[in-house]
């Protein structure tokens, strides 16, 4: 059997990581500004994380959700406190797509409606309704194209209000910083107006914080920059630093019922231990503030570089979620960064480099990256 070939790959075999650096099987070191697609939040192979996950594995790795798991309750309490959502409820699953599936399902259960509003260039996952809410026809199979979703321009409040006034919208789902969509930021005016319109029309507001949340923006959630409080929040990626964990944070206005949602692996003992270790490190090392401070420093350095490098047409983002727009294709730039400068970055579209480093990224590392990017440009 061979692998199902759906991923274009760099010819690099990464075998080791530490902090914001990784090494390949030849011993070559790389600076990591990709974080495995925003998954590595506290840094590769953090010793506290390794210890906590190892200790839990030595006790119990998994048992089903048919018994009490006190680690789930501990995680809910800790996450509520650190995020500012003490009064919300937590449902644990395995991935971001699952988080959005369950969020949309809950919304439909609550108001009996079936239509979803999603933003143009949105990305919400690759399963059933999550992929239908993703504005990319190339990854929506015919079986997923069920006419549930209307796509609207991000920040065009009038367009969203006009659809909401029809009275049939189940949920609005937005990324307050679009990742795959090109590091496009929702505005405060749009977000607050959308929340008010959802409330007027009995529609559930869902913030997809899977990539932009969990401290990456310099606040715990990106929507907290915008002064809103959504009905449902979805998280994954950085929640457990590489262990597959996703979660739905649910307003107290939603009443759970037995059998309404379910999962086999979600919230297992090992997953909870990994997620708790991440919160330990985020708090002890003040990583949310570091993301804000270091992100501002990196953005300033990039904007300064833009003045001398005409190929950079825009720099945008928040915290350690930054887009560098180019007037040339990003692919050869990214390849030279990997093979010549030994730096990993993300990308999106034809012309955008996407920076998603671990939240322990430092100013010295930012300076190192600027030097290496300058060499390539």
UniProtKB/TrEMBL annotation:
Molecular function GO labels: transaminase activity
Gene3D superfamilies from the UniProt entry: Aspartate Aminotransferase, domain 1, Type I PLP-dependent aspartate aminotransferase-like (Major domain)
Organism domain of life: Bacteria
Keyword ATP-binding assigned: no
Keywords: Aminotransferase, Pyridoxal phosphate, Transferase
Keyword Zinc assigned: no
InterPro entries in the cross-refs: Aminotrans_3 (IPR005814), Aminotrans_3_PPA_site (IPR049704), Class-III_PLP-dep_AT (IPR050103), PyrdxlP-dep_Trfase (IPR015424), PyrdxlP-dep_Trfase_major (IPR015421), PyrdxlP-dep_Trfase_small (IPR015422)
Cofactor(s) annotated in UniProt: pyridoxal 5'-phosphate
Family to which this protein belongs: Belongs to the class-III pyridoxal-phosphate-dependent aminotransferase family.
PANTHER family: ACETYLORNITHINE AMINOTRANSFERASE, MITOCHONDRIAL, AMINOTRANSFERASE CLASS III
Name of the molecule in the record: Aminotransferase class III-fold pyridoxal phosphate-dependent enzyme
């Amino acid at each position: 059997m061979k692998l199902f070939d759906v991923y274009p790959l760099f010819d690099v075999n990464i075998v080791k990581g530490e902090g914001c650096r990784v090494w390949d099987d030849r011993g070559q070191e790389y600076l990591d500004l990709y974080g495995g697609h925003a998954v590595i939040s506290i840094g590769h192979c953090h010793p506290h994380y390794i210890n906590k996950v190892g200790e839990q594995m030595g006790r119990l790795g998994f048992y089903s959700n048919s018994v009490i798991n006190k680690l789930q309750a501990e995680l809910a309490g800790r996450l509520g406190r650190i995020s500012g959502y003490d009064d919300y409820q937590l449902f644990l699953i395995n991935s971001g797509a699952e988080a959005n599936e369950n969020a949309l399902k809950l919304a439909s259960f609550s108001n009996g409606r079936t239509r979803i509003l999603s933003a143009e260039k949105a990305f919400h996952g690759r399963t059933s309704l999550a992929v239908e809410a993703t504005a990319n026809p190339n990854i929506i199979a015919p079986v997923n194209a069920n006419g549930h979703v209307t796509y609207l321009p991000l920040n065009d409040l009038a367009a969203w209000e006009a659809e909401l006034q029809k009275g049939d919208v189940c949920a609005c789902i937005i990324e307050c910083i679009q990742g795959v969509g090109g590091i496009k930021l929702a505005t405060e005016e749009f977000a607050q107006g959308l929340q008010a319109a959802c409330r007027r029309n009995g529609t559930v507001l869902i913030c997809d914080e899977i990539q932009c949340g969990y401290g990456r923006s310099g606040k715990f959630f990106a929507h907290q920059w915008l002064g809103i409080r959504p009905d449902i929040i979805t998280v994954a990626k950085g929640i457990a630093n590489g262990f597959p964990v996703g979660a739905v944070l649910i307003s107290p206005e939603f009443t759970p019922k037995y059998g309404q949602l379910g999962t086999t692996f979600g919230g297992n003992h090992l997953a909870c231990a990994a997620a708790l270790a991440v919160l330990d490190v985020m708090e002890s090392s003040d990583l949310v503030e570091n993301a804000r401070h270091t992100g501002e420093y990196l953005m300033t350095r990039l904007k300064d570089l833009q003045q001398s490098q005409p190929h950079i047409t825009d720099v945008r983002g928040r915290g350690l979620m930054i887009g560098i727009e180019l007037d040339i294709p990003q692919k050869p730039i990214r390849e030279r960064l990997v093979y010549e400068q030994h730096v990993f970055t993300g990308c999106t579209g034809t012309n955008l480099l996407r920076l998603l480093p671990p939240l322990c990224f430092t100013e010295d590392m930012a300076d190192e990256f600027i030097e290496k990017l300058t060499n390539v440009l």
